[in-house]
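Give me the fold.
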Amino acid sequence: MNEDLLDKGIELPIMEEFYTLQGEGIQTGRAAYFVRLGGCDVACEWCDTKESWNSNLFPPKKVDDMILRVMVTKAQSVVVTGGEPLNWNLDYLCQKLKENNILTFLETSGSQPLSGVWNWICVSPKKITSPLQHILDKANELKVIIQNSTDFAWAEEIASKVKTDCYLLLQPEWSRQQQITPAIIDYIKKFPQWRLSLQVHKFLKIP
């Protein structure tokens, strides 16, 4: 492993990459190329990609090679997710994507300082590691996962810290979506500044 290339973001621990439809949040239904990076400092108990936590399982790959794979598709945007993607320097990745007129989308818990230049930032904060304010200041979309009724108050607390034009979404935790979704619907009817986000890709059984 070349630590210098990793530090500069010329190589990244890419866990998986695939071209599909966005399955949750404001961008649901749009085609996008997903790049999932290994490594996470948050480790939520209900994470659906726990295999991504250990970055050592994913030897660094050249970002330039990945860009070529993106260009083979008709993708107009790349979504960088994890794990927690901001564990890594994403400046080089964003630079290369923008050189090829590809939009850059970030999915982050907001636990680490921002790197990269983004067209869209979705912050999905976790209670165990509060999001950094400078990330919340730049958020285009706040997507809060609701596992139980106590999460609504926390969602409001985080929502008070984002800019006024940031989209606010509540998403049921997948293993409890049948139980918690009715409560989310009732909450949104009372507080219509929020929207419902569903993990459509799981219902459709697509990546």
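The chain has a mean pLDDT of 93.
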